Amino acid sequence: MQPTTPILHFPNDLAQATAFIKAGECVAIKTETVYGLAADASNEDAVKAIFKAKARPATNPLIVHIASIADMKKWARDIPSRAYLLAEKYWPGPLSLLLKKQPWVSNTVTGGQDTVVLRMPASDDFISLINAAGVGLAAPSANKYKFISPTSADHVLTSLHGRIAAVVDGGRAEVGIESTIIDVTGETPCILRPGPINRDSLKRDLQTEVTFKNNEGLTVPGSVLQHYQPNTPVKMLSRDALMQKRFTKSEGLISHSSYTWPLEKRNHIQLSPMPQQYSRDFYDALHQLDKQGLSCIYIEALPKTESWFALNNRLSRVVALG
Predict the structure, then answer these.
(1) I need a labelling partner for 200 at 20 to 30 A (CA). Which of 50, 210, 258, 308 fits?
(2) What angle do CA 237, 33, 269 make, to 5 degrees?
(3) Under 8 Å between Cβ of 274 and 212
(4) HSE of 256 in the Cβ direction (CA atoms, 13 Å)?
């Protein structure tokens, strides 16, 4: 019989979740971006349990979540002033900083690299768990490797039921896509994974050029070609191509344009034409359609503007090699 995964609620079940963390177990819990699979980042066996539950390659590093800016010094060394500037501006929030790691930080956490990625999440539940456990929490998205990221407790159970100690149900994630990761160790800050905080904002705050890195020689979360994918094949088409297409009853559509699409209601999810609202609901839409046993999910191509850049990054990986 498959083991069950209990659903917890804070504050009533904070002590239970903390006990799981201290015992080296994995607990799924909401951040403002997506649900994370949290475990004690200073416990080698606990970190390995994350990789096992997700079936994630050991070379793929984890983000360590901390409860305060002061905690950066526990995990990172040679911290540049621009890191503190960004932390003061965006923490708690969806920005992750890549820094030089302290010597004691496990290579299991960092994927064998000499850097560590840190973030302070904007989630009262997550911060309370960090403080109660008294440790930094490594927490990649709470789903099997390469599967759709979870933005609700139900999404977590879709792929990790019976594989983890518990899920803390904190409702829907407010942002809906993963944090921006920026490397601040070099002369020019580099965005390694685009996210809710865009380059224009970072350039303005840092008053310097900010580039996008091709990740050669450096692996970060979410950098593999195929990622965030449902079990159903996904294809992306332009609005014009979709308007000319004859949909079958076994096909689904995620759109953002105002148009009367010729599909059954259950097969069509209309998302907002505004990128912030679209981000919040995108993964949930994929989860909904993936449950229906469709032959294909079509996604309307997104605008190629700065405000849609992070979503285009995610979408390119959803449909990669599809």
Answers:
(1) 258
(2) 35
(3) no
(4) 20
